[in-house]
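stage 2 :: seqdesign
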């Protein structure tokens, strides 16, 4: 990828897309193509085709998607499966039709089988039943991976698929229904602090184990892999370490400086008991995450306060 290559960033205002945008700018890539959701609705095939015809992108980091936490996935399963299938189908097919040199697709660690052995190796994909709360989302994402592989096999395209773990960082989604655990906890503890609430309730038992990657490390991995990775097989991107939701909550509480109590509500769903990626494949290629969890949360909280 040259510094002058035409690089299209669908979803450039989201958590991942905005981190990629900042990273590519920092690295001196000068021809970045971006459109907001209102300017270009990626579920509309005609609009996507017209965009490709006019702009002829050479590289694509596909970071546009319908993304959300347990509650949003449970409430809007049709939106999750329809919008993700439509967005990725339109972009992947156009990438083939308009001779895009390389496309990077984002899967997710939450599309591995619910009870797969830990840490999750790439070969566990499709080896068992999915987590029911986000099955429509997972099926759409798995379809995206399979499309990339099928186009590579039939048409000789160069489409790669990454499996990032849970992400967090600047521009995360803090709307209650859509948010992931990290954003939800930052918002909860911040509100409890400013409103001087005596306690904070946290969904679930606090025992599930999760891994968190700072989104700027993911952006770094995306640039690394678009240069170095050519295989159709998926590749995990994570830190290779996990913590319990309880430990995470207490760390966020400390960073925010909330002095009240914290209690866990076991009547609310926990989701998958553990989600930890085996990151030996990407480590063997020479990449590993650089930002500590504490430092990442501090940066994220500062950004939350500013925005
Ligand atoms: N967040 C995580 O923890 C995580 C973990 C693993 C993998 N991933 C993957 O990373 C990718 C990006 O996730 P994210 O967390 O960055 O999501 P995000 O913050 O919600 O960003 C998604 C972006 O896509 C845009 N978008 C959605 N529908 C669109 C449409 N129809 N037309 C045009 N733009 C549209 C959104 O714009 P609007 O907001 O204007 O709709 C938003 O800018 C996804 O593929 C996700 O599966 C995320």
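stage 2 :: out
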């Amino acid at each position: 990828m040259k510094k002058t290559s035409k690089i299209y960033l669908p979803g450039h205002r989201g958590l991942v897309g905005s981190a990629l945008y900042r990273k590519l700018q920092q690295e001196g890539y000068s021809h970045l193509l971006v459109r907001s959701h209102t300017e270009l609705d990626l579920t509309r095939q005609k609009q996507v085709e017209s965009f490709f015809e006019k702009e002829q992108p050479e590289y694509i980091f596909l970071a546009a998607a319908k993304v959300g936490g347990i509650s949003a996935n449970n409430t809007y399963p049709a939106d999750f499966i329809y919008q993700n299938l439509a967005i990725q189908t339109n972009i992947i097919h156009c990438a083939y039709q308009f001779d895009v040199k390389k496309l990077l697709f984002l899967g997710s660690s939450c599309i591995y089988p619910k009870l797969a052995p830990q840490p999750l190796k790439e070969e566990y994909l499709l080896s068992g039943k999915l987590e029911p709360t986000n099955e429509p989302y997972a099926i759409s994402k798995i379809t995206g991976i399979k499309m990339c592989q099928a186009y590579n096999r039939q048409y000789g395209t160069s489409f790669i698929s990454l499996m990032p773990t849970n992400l967090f960082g600047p521009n995360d989604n803090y709307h209650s229904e859509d948010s992931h655990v990290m954003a939800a906890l930052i918002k909860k503890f911040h509100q409890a602090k400013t409103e001087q609430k005596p306690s904070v309730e946290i969904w679930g038992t606090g025992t599930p184990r999760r891994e968190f990657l700072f989104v700027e490390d993911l952006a770094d991995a995306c640039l690394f892999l678009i240069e170095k990775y050519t295989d159709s097989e998926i590749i995990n991107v994570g830190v290779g370490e996990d913590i319990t939701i309880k430990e995470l909550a207490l760390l966020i509480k400390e960073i925010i400086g909330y002095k009240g109590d914290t209690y866990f509500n076991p009547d609310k769903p926990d989701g998958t008991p553990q989600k930890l990626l085996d990151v030996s494949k990407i480590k063997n290629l020479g990449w590993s995450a650089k930002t500590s969890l504490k430092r990442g949360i501090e940066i994220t909280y500062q950004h939350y306060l500013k925005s």
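stage 3 :: structure notes
- The pocket of NAP is lined by residues 11, 13-17, 37, 41-43, 63-67, 83, 87, 106, 108, 164, 166-167, 173, 180 (CB under 6 Å).
- The chain is about 45% helix and 15% strand.
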